[in-house]
Amino acid sequence: TPLCLTLKIVNKIIVLYKFLFGGRKMKFFKRILCLVLSLLFIVQMMTGCSSKKTDDEIYLTKGEFFAYFVYENNMTSEQYSAEEIQNCEDGSVEADIIVEWGYLTEDVAKKNLKKHVTKEIVVTVCANSTFDLKKGKTSDIKDSDLLDNPQLIADAYASGLFDLENGYFDGEAKMSFTACEEILNRAKEYTA
Question: Tell me: the pLDDT tens digits for 91-127?
């Protein structure tokens, strides 16, 4: 945390000051060497903590993705009121709506809502919300044997909802908001 880092830096400066200007006699070269090494250490600590996450590095949970998807598509429910949908904080209501619309099975939708959403779930939801997908070949996807529904993913690929990376889908990849938004926008463009 920033407070912990600040306390460490202040502590290092105090130790350095006592060491350099304390009662001990040291040769000038050793003092300078100590000062340079301490400054390098402090700079290294500060540069390691100064990097901030960008939008691409912020991964969505399944609950957050479901809430985003339901909101973006103005989805309604026979089971929940608009107020209940809006006030849900953990994504459980949105997961029920995704199931109600038939985009995911209940066991997949409700499992681990607080964990990162995977590429396979995002593509599955977006593909199931899209009509008349082109017929794809599972052989185009090198890791199709690792997928829950390889034909649906192949159809989504053939329809342009996502791009393969060297022929691989990587269904377990964590998804950032930007990546989810891109797949959702491609699905909307395909349907339009």
Answer: 889 999 999 999 999 999 888 888 999 999 999 999 9
> For the segment 26-69, what is each residue's pLDDT rounded down to a tens digit?
556 566 666 676 776 776 666 655 555 554 468 889 999 999 99
The Cα 69–Cα 162 span in angstroms is 17
Contacts of residue 171, Cβ cutoff 8 Å, sequence gap at least 6: 118, 119, 120, 123, 143, 146, 147, 153
* Three-state secondary structure call for residue 59: strand
Cross-strand pairs, 118: 174
Q: Among 53, 58, 52, which residue's Cα sits nearest to residue 178?
A: 58
CA distance 181 to 163: 14
What three-state secondary structure class fits 23?
A: coil
Query: What sections of 22-167 are H helices per DSSP?
Result: 28-49, 62-72, 82-87, 92-100, 106-110, 119-128, 150-158
The one-letter amino acid at 132: D
Mean pLDDT within 78-87: 87
The CA-CA-CA angle for residues 152, 158, 163, to 5°, reads 100
